[in-house]
Write a structure and sequence with these properties.
The protein is an all-alpha fold and 241 residues long. The chain has helices at residues 2-15, 18-32, 38-46, 56-81, 86-108, 111-114, 119-147, 154-182, 193-207. Keywords: Membrane, Transmembrane, Transmembrane helix, Transport.
């Protein structure tokens, strides 16, 4: 019980450190402000009265292909971005995320047909590109989270950071659901779906304004002072069994 209380005190002291709460807040905003329009797009994909009227099996295949494509995102990060400062990584990734978000808008507005690209080809390309960029965007957040964990409570504090990220994802879904409801997007009415996607893209762009919260250090730098917890009245080091 005492060790648990010491860990809680250590996490509280750590989260108050500006070098920790600022990037944590940025990661929350990055996830929360990208409101989810997944439900509306899924029903639009499969509605027989709406274009493109994909089968549910084909939609499942699209997501499977996208999952495989995300591996490419990991490789791109490893080869091209991992040595950049975190702020540069997150800035580039967020701008790419905004750009790929426009592909959804192009698809919903049927602009791909005007360009001579079939629905089936476009949606596969869009899903692959989106998954790659999403992986490029999330990977530096995970790496940054590992650098924010002080010695002695690494596991507990990393779990806390993952909870903050999960809260950001949940906030995205809640906000997306409210936006779709406010715009009267239903399982059969998709007239305002394009506007919901436009709002989502605008919020993704707005996230760039919070980039100052992220550190300018890179993955080889020490972000947490070694003595951050040394002045605590309790010993936060893991005791030897």
């Amino acid at each position: 019980m005492e060790k648990a209380w010491n860990a809680v005190n250590g996490m509280y002291k750590t989260i108050k450190f500006p070098g920790v709460w600022k990037p944590s807040l940025f990661m929350y905003f990055s996830l929360a402000l990208s409101i989810s329009t997944y439900e509306g797009r899924f029903y639009w994909y499969t509605d027989p009265k709406a274009s493109p009227a994909f089968s549910q099996e084909f939609v499942g295949m699209i997501y499977a292909i996208g999952a495989l494509a995300s591996i490419v995102g990991s490789l791109i990060y490893q080869k091209c971005l991992k040595n950049f400062p975190f702020r540069n990584q997150l800035f580039i990734a967020q701008l790419l995320y905004v750009t790929t978000g426009m592909l959804d808008l192009i698809f919903v507005l049927r602009c791909n047909l005007k360009l001579g690209i079939s629905d089936y080809l476009f949606v596969v390309m869009e899903e692959c590109v989106s998954r790659i960029i999403t992986k490029i965007r999330l990977t530096p957040m995970i790496v940054l989270s590992t650098k924010l964990c002080p010695s002695g409570i690494e596991g507990s504090f990393f779990a806390l950071l993952m909870c903050i990220d999960s809260l950001g994802s949940l906030s995205s879904k809640w906000a997306g659901g409210m936006a779709l409801h406010a715009l009267h997007v239903t399982r059969t009415d998709f007239r305002n779906l394009w506007f919901a996607i436009l709002i989502r893209n605008a919020l993704r762009l707005a996230t760039v304004s919070f980039i100052f919260l992220s550190p300018t250090a890179d993955s080889s730098d020490v972000l947490i002072p070694p003595n951050l917890l040394s002045n605590s009245s309790t010993n936060l080091d893991v005791e030897e069994e």
